[in-house]
Amino acid sequence: VQVVESGGGLVQPGGSLRLSCAATGFTFANYAMSWYRQCPGKERELVAAITSTGITTDYPDSVKGRFTISRHRTNPTIYLQMNSLKPEDTAVYYCKLRVLQRDFWGQGTQVTVSS
User: Fold this and answer.
1) What are the average pLDDT values for consecutive 10-residue runs of the chain, which has 115 residues?
2) For the chain, which end, N or C, has fewer CB atoms within 10 Å of the first or last residue's CB respectively?
3) How many CA atoms lie within 13 A of 4 on its CB side?
4) How many helices and strands in the chain, by DSSP H and E?
5) Quick one: 65 exposed, middle or buried, by C-beta within 10 A (0-12, 13-18, 19+)?
């Protein structure tokens, strides 16, 4: 199983980015995928999660109304649309696949919000 994130980069405050995460190497229909982030000096935190049937979790207050998780209709691929980015959103963003009660992590993608 492989989990690969993409789409990070440098963006100015107020800007937008869209992260993608593709999972390959498995064939089970039921799974969940999620986005976490780890800000400098802080613990990794859950940002958003979605199941293979499209059920999403609530967002933490820090990103609510600005971030949106979505999924590809048929492939195990998810996206994180991030709008109105703030410097405090600077972090490494990780994607996690959960299938058959096992977790598979991507290597992460850096998002830097700075002017």
Assistant:
1) 96 98 89 95 95 90 96 91 97 96 96 97
2) C
3) 5
4) 0, 10
5) exposed
